[in-house]
Amino acid sequence: MNEFNPASFIKLEHLSIDFPLFQLESRSLKKALFSKAGKIISGQQKQHQRTGAEIATTGNNDIVIQALRDINLSIQSGERVGLIGHNGAGKSTLLRAITGIYEPNSGHISSRGSIEALLSTNAGMNPLLSGRENIYLRGKRMGLSNKQIQTLEKDVEEFAELNEFMELPIKIYSSGMTMRLGFGLSTSVIPNILLMDEWFMAGDSNFQEKAKKRLVSIVNKAEIVVLTTHSLPILKEWCNRIIWLKAGQIIADGPTEEILNEYKHTMETDSLS
Amino acid sequence: MTLLTKINNSTMNSRYYQALIDVIEGFKLWRLAFSLGWFDIKLRYKGSALGPLWITSTSAAMIATMGIIYSSLFKMDLHEYLPFIALSTVLWQHGISTTLSDGCQCFLQANDTIHSIKLPFFLQALRTITRNAIILSFNLVIPAIVFYVFNIHPGWNALLSIPGFALWLVDGLAICLLLGCICARYRDIPQIINSFIQVIFYVTPIIWLPSQLKHHITYLVYNPLYPIIDVVRAPLLGQTLDLRVWAYAIGYSIIIWIAAGYVFIRARGRLAFWI
After folding, report:
1. A109 and A136 co-located in one domain
2. A182 with A156, same domain?
3. ipTM of the complex
4. DSSP character for B97?
5. How far is CA B193 from CA B50, B76, B97, B175, B201, in A?
6. Least C-beta-crowded within 10 Å: which of A73, B25, B174, B211?
7. In a 10 Å sphere around its CB, with 0-12 CB exposed, 13-18 middle and 19+ buried, how is residue B24 labelled?
8. Where does the record place the ABC transporter domain (chain A) (predicted)?
9. What are the CA-CA distances from residue A49 to residues A45, A105, A242, B57 (Å)?
10. Are residues A174 and A83 in the same domain?
11. How far is CA A23 from CA A20, A51, A117, A215, B144, in A?
């Protein structure tokens, strides 16, 4: 880092994210209109009720899941953060919020530095297009020139070992091939901030070894890494800070060793009781 | 200077500013939008022997049959009627009708991408309009052939349709933002739009000529689609430019833009949750 390139950071202030559940009700215009009319007639609003910890009904009658609640967090350059917690604790939502895909209902997200997110294997690839066409689109998305796209193509082609499958649509690829392509593409540039969801550790051992090599070089060069995984060895090896999420809130945040011990302890007592 | 910082601080996070940034960033990615639109077309016709020509030949068959039936129904000379209906039908079907129905799917069809990468939403509007503009230009071959066969030359007058097409592009983008947002939120809107398209097809002079309305013609401008289609169609048919029609077309367009802006500014931040 030099003075022309200020240090990356992520800062979340009072971040809350609700997911509307339209599937349950008020998805259609008809229902929305009728519910409004009903409200006017009865002259009262439905009571703001909470069922359990995370599902709530807002004033507009929408049922929402409170995926994240009042998160305050600051991540500085040099930190390798691991997110832990149960499925549905809000880990992936937090990553998507940092990426900017989900905009907060309340609170602020600020960050500096280029962000690359490895959120799903197919990371926005079009399954009907060929591997080569998908690489081309990714290059265009990153604003690369045609020459740079050729370099990207070569790099990814070599890593993913697609050979003649390069010209065939992705939907006929094996899951391993899709994963190699997606992984190769997402790791072809070195971002300032790297966000990873746990899928990147799936795949056969041969892929894992290859992937790890590539990932290590990126993780080492990125200023900030945030990853979610259930694998404690990975957290121990890669992270110097652990954030523990439960029901959309941070319940512990600190050095790897300390938090992981606490986590393990809770898990054990949980399984005993 | 202080005013500028003040504006900066208060607007940085405002949804107006965010929506504006979205549109600007979307335009910056026009190359990507173009590629996406082009790949959409390629995929749509992959595996069909005729490729994009398939849809062109369907429209050609439709125009031929409608031309013969309606020219006898309306007791009009085929020589006069067929060029009109050829142009009208193509402009309607591949211009207005597809823009309305594809606009609804603008964000819904891209849900996979929207959930995995941060990209401007406006990019999806650009992609839809690029795709439809390309398909429309393919299909303009039909009226071109009919004009050639019937030996009709619109002359230099035809160039006046260029600003008309430009208006269509801008309106199309606005329609994508407007309907795309509404349809992402309310899933029954696309069906409503589709029935609306069917109805409006008959009340807009597509298969019948505006002059057939006789003294009721003055009411025609209250149908927004009439001036909007006529700014492109009239010059291509070699008719003189009617400034009143243009004024109405621009007026209706401004209403569409305002509605689109209002809806997009409010909906943009919630779109990722809706789709």
Report:
1. no
2. yes
3. 0.78
4. I
5. 30, 32, 10, 12, 12
6. B211
7. exposed
8. 53-272
9. 11, 19, 33, 58
10. no
11. 9, 17, 28, 38, 48
| pTM summary value | 0.85
Here the CATH number for the domain that contains residue A163 is 3.40.50.300
CB contact under 8 A, B32 and A124: no
Do A106 and A142 have their domain in common? no
Interchain CB distance below 8 Å, A129 and B43: yes
Query: Which residues form the domain of A77?
Result: 9-21+52-113+232-272
Q: Is residue A109 part of a domain?
A: yes
Q: Are residues A263 and A168 both part of a single domain?
A: no
Assess if residue A84 is contained within a domain: yes
Q: For residues B259 and B266, what is the distance between their CA atoms, to the nearest angstrom?
A: 11
pLDDT value for B192: 93
Instruction: Identify which has the larger pLDDT, A187 or B180.
Output: B180
**Residue A124 and residue A118 in contact, taking contact as beta carbons nearer than 8 Å:** no
Give me the number of domains chain A comprises.
2
What does the DSSP assignment read for B43-96?
HHTTT-SSTTHHHHHHHHHHHHHHHHHHHHHTT--HHHHHHHHHHHHHIIIIII
